[in-house]
User: Fold SMP-30/Gluconolactonase/LRE-like region domain-containing protein from Malus domestica.
Amino acid sequence: MACCSALCSPKFLLLFLLLSAVPIAYLISLEVAKPATHVYHYHSTSWFRECAKWDDLNRRFLVSFIDGGIGQVTVPNDDPDAVLVEVPVVKHVDLAGNASLGLLIDRPRNRLLVATADVKGNLYSALAAYDLSTWERVFLTQLSGPSDEKSFADDVAVDAEGNAYVTDCTASKIWKVGADGKLLSTIRNPLFKAKEWYKNLVGLNGIVYHPDGYLIVIHTFSGKLLKIDLAKGEEVKLIEVAGGPLTFGDGLELLSPTKVVVAGNPSGRLVESSDGWETASVVGKFSGPRHRLATAATVKDGKVYLSHMVGMGYPKKTHALVEAVFSA
Ligand SMILES: *[C@@H]1O[C@H](CO)[C@@H](O)[C@H](O)[C@H]1NC(C)=O
Assistant:
């Protein structure tokens, strides 16, 4: 017990209490503060969630689990303040150890696409598709394995033909997967990499398909926004963003053909373009519960909701879907 002499001194204990109490008090103050915008809270079975997307036809949020799997959070019509409950719908036993990350509701094909990856080792990446009515798996496509370069399938978009584009935020590339689940090609480009090595630690991340036939993708640590024109042989261009760079931008969502929401830190940024995403500008910001870390955005009845990585509360772990209201 020799080490206790120093550590157990009243002075040290006081210091320890002070140091640990401040962040805890800060967290509690953030938690009990009345939110400025509407929040859907839901009880969950674990602390970490990645993405949430609103499924309007079935009146539910679909949520991806960092510990693997998918849940649904049904929203009753009547009570906006009810605490909702997450119910697991996919338990991906054969992929145990891998996280479920970016989600996309592929409405024409009635399925959910799920980017899946090994968070710790970056040794496995896959794209899974599940039927939205039965939750049966439609396909599981391995994108990379232990003998390939390190990778991390993070987010997914789908084009009009049903091809999926999955971002790899570790090696900064994009896998293209056909509507039938076949891995078709890998898109690489010098613009996908930042000059500074440390800015490539988290590279290509959120991705959306624009109805005019191109992809918009964000590079998280450099904050660059890129346009990939599918009609022009996957030509990649840097989108000049006034008010950028969009550093720490994570999930993206199209609010309209001229507006994209960027989730991350700050919690939400609204970016607008009037020239088909050659240039754009940050027109609004929203700061939500930053201790919960906003990771993705979705649109419900014209309103933007941000999902967060970290759940809080005891004994019930509670997650928050926070309405983002942007101001200049
Ligand atoms: C992810 O899933 C693959 C495929 O089943 C498996 O081989 C791999 O071990 C899993 N990764 C982890 C970290 O458990």
Residues 13 and 19 are 10 Å apart (CA to CA).
